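Researcher: I'd like a structural prediction for the single chain below. Treat it as a standalone chain; there are no partners to consider.
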Amino acid sequence: MSDRLDDLERRIDELRAGVRTAMRARDGARARVLRAELRGAERAWDALVSGERPVKEEPPRLVTVREQVHQGLRLLGAAAQPRLIVAVSAAFFGGTISSSRLTSLRRDEERSFRSSPFGRPYYLCAALTDRLSPARGLLTLSAWPLERRVVGPLSPRVDFLTCAIAVAEQETGDERADRLLVRMARNIPGAADGTLGPPHRGRVIEAARAELRVHADRDTRDRAELAQRAVAQLDDAARLFGAATLGTIKKEYAT
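Model: Treating it as a single chain, here is the predicted structure.
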């Protein structure tokens, strides 16, 4: 129980700090999302401390597709394509989702938000392009700051390297995790050692961080500019799911 308490207390501290940061930045949308997640974490802490769990162990709860995607994105820490999220979910959480099932998920999340804004602790939402429209095939988490949810010219590469580091830092011994790391290492100069087996995790991390240092400053500036534009130009829903494009408007009128 102590390990679970420690995890919850760390998460509560992170969420409280995130709420303060969002309030200072006058990002009300993010602050509301974080407060909702904070309340859930505090309820879980109270239940664990008070011993409200039944003595008899309950059967494992079915993890929904939505929750599996959330787990995968939390591990990766950056915007990711469905196929990577699916691979991470299978390798580290025993997930059973397929890329095809994620096709309509973002639209479902947007409909839920618009019908009951901030009614959920988090939303699975789109990354935002330099036009502040939804990036095709890139999912993010609403609790992340805007700077992590927008994508500039260098962001796809930066996010890939960030995800590779996150995968390399996990030590599970699972063959699926090893295969995923092999595929990612092939796309990072200096990460693969030429052997047939999985690359050394430390080598992958070092190579990815070395390339990140080349791109990080420019990408950070680009994202900060995009985030400022999003705050100034978009409402709460559009900050999460992107501004409507001309094509989207035409489709809505057609239907």
